[in-house]
Sequence to fold (352 residues):
Amino acid sequence: MAIMTRDFNAVDLSDPKAAALAVKRKALELGADAVGIGNIDRWEGAPLQMDPKQIMPECKSIIGMVFRVERGSLRGVEEGTYMSNYSAMGYGGITYLYMPMTVINLSKFIEDQGYEAIPMGHQSDWRGIDNEGYALPKFSRPARPGQAQPDVMIQLRIAAYLCGLGEIGFSKMFLSPQFGPRCRVGIIMTDVELEPDPIYDGPQLCNRCMACVKACPAQAFSTEKTIKVKLAGHDVEWSDLDMAKCSYAFRGCKDSGVVQDDPYNPPSPTSVPGEWSPFYHKPKNLYKTGQAVCGSRGCTRACMISLENRGVLQNTFKEKFRRRPVWNIDWSTPPEYAPGTKFRNSDDEGID
Fold:
């Protein structure tokens, strides 16, 4: 019996329109929830360290894919009882497992037809820029004169916008018409010419309701200072997000201003748990970076609730998401454990 292998050159991708259709169908088959295409011309003028042509000079098309964050993965955070599920299933699991498998397999489909494809998700640990796009000093150096320093990192929210998949909200979160902020983005760069999709022009998603601003535990969104860019001839604007504040509160940290004997997060000696964290100490990371203790309280949950209430999302539900009052921890008072809570060293229920 002969070995078996994949079929090569079985799909003709020479016609841009037919090729785009074939690629989109395959993307959905492999697990993407939405897929769109932007031609490379839309990235004209991109910052050097975010320019796709620095990675693939012959790139003709970029394929953007939306991967939903299940609404249910936010349920435990909303109830205050199962915090790790969002970090694991709705965050790290998509970023480091599910999405890579889809973009890798779609890239294999394209390469089977004789074209090159570069799969890319959120894997950015080697990137040569910080969270605000500035080059990192003494991190890496250009391999050739005139090139960007490694690693170039494509701005995924901008890529999704340029592939016609939705809007960038005031929060800087990418909003898809299917799921709002409940999504993550993966892309593929390829040298095959694919018919591009128009820039999103559907129902307005972000209406500047400021729900994200009001609910963010870090108060990381400025309402006065914004970032304005022109993308493929379109003016796009979002809040000048304070990444340091976001990163701190993301982990459940609150700054006490006083060095603690037992800090919430030891690398931050003045940290104490915020009212949005039920933990005495920051839990260990899940999938390396999945540690969203704040549960995206403002940028995702508050935004999603607003969008659902307005009825503008395609993925609708039989029941509203928020069914009980928002919880907050009062760390100045002793804990009240529910009946049935048993500790190893106590015969009494609900007593530690």
In short: The beta strands are 34-39, 61-68, 117-120, 167-168, 174-175, 183-190, 226-231, 234-239, 253-255, 271-273. The mean pLDDT is 94. Residues 84-112 form the longest helix (29 residues).
